[in-house]
Amino acid sequence: VGLTFQAFEIERHDNCAYDYLEIRDGTNENSPLIGHFCGYDKPEDIRSTSNTLWMKFVSDGTVNKAGFAANFFKEEDECAKPDNGGCEQRCVNTLGSYQCACDPGYELGPDKKSCEAACGGLLTKLNGTITTPGWPKEYPPNKNCVWQVVAPTQYRISMKFEFFELEGNEVCKYDYVEIRSGLSSDSKLHGKFCGTEVPEVITSQYNNMRIEFRSDNTVSKKGFKAHFFSDKDECSKDNGGCQHECINTVGSYVCQCRNGFVLHENKHDCKEAECEQKIHSPNGIITSPN
Partners of 94 in the beta sheet? Predict the structure, then answer.
């Protein structure tokens, strides 16, 4: 039996000693107590564990209130049926109805009964792998997945594709993946990719990256598998200690000098280059140091 309250106003008391509604799970006053209710807050929806619900309303001889109004109805456990309510993975019984749910790593499909691999989310690990939903099988239609990768300050994120196969056309109108520096949909765009050509390695400008995958309702392909890894950008702080230019590399960095200078033995400072040179070109430009 299911019970839902539409209105509830019974004389208030901390222990419901004056006016109250008593509800028990069973056929009589000795059945398990569900609750004594009074005051002005509607009780939560109630469901019995059997086919009977026992209720008693008591009022004393003093204060009167509006009382209560409740709907009772036959509550069927649709999830107890042999077909699991038609749910592919999990069936969750609710008061007067039911809903399907999926195991971790999956999400409900458009029919609200089947489950498909989930996609997208916030990723804060320094490295990991991203794949299209259903990998290595074909990705489902009508998917919109957004991954937001966030690394610590001073880090940059690189994305390398191991496999890439999406429905393609010249402007990537149908299925595509977009990669941006930043977390919003209008952040700097590195590229919009589709087809079968594997994109080059992409490195973010900042410590975050947005990857968005979309598929339409027609052709599906195998999708993509990509690895992301974060690397500290030593050049982002104090120019890496370099006097002129700092060039960030994977796992390290190097200092570089402007024209007319060479790198000092300490690998950070720059000194004037020697100006004695042999020239064999019939024409050109000669300048003094600096």
Answer: 97
HEC states along 86-148? HCCCEEEEECCEEEEECCCCEEECCCCCCEEECCCEEECCCEEEEECCCCCCCCCCCCEEEEE
For residue 34 the two structure tokens come to: 């569900």
How many angstroms separate the CA atoms of 99 and 3, rounded?
A: 19
Residues paired with 121 in a beta bridge: 147
Contact of 11 with 41, CB cutoff 8 Å: no
How distant, in Å, are the alpha carbons of 1, 23, 42, 52 from that of 73? 6, 15, 18, 11
Longest dimension (CA), the chain: 119
Q: What is the pLDDT of residue 206?
A: 87
- ∠ CA 242-248-249, nearest 5°, is 130
- Per-residue pLDDT of 55-87, as tens digits, reads 999 999 899 999 999 999 888 888 988 999 999
Separation of first and last alpha carbons in the chain = 91
The distance from CA 212 to its chain's CA centroid, rounded to whole angstroms, is: 11
Domains with residue ranges and CATH for the chain: 2-73 (2.60.120.290), 83-117 (2.10.25.10), 121-232 (2.60.120.290), 234-272 (2.10.25.10)
List 33's β-bridge partners, or say none. 24
Residue 251 tokens read as 């796992």
Compute the C-alpha angle 223/129/105, nearest 5°. 80
228-273 per-position pLDDT tens digit: 999 888 888 888 899 999 988 777 889 999 888 889 999 999 988 7
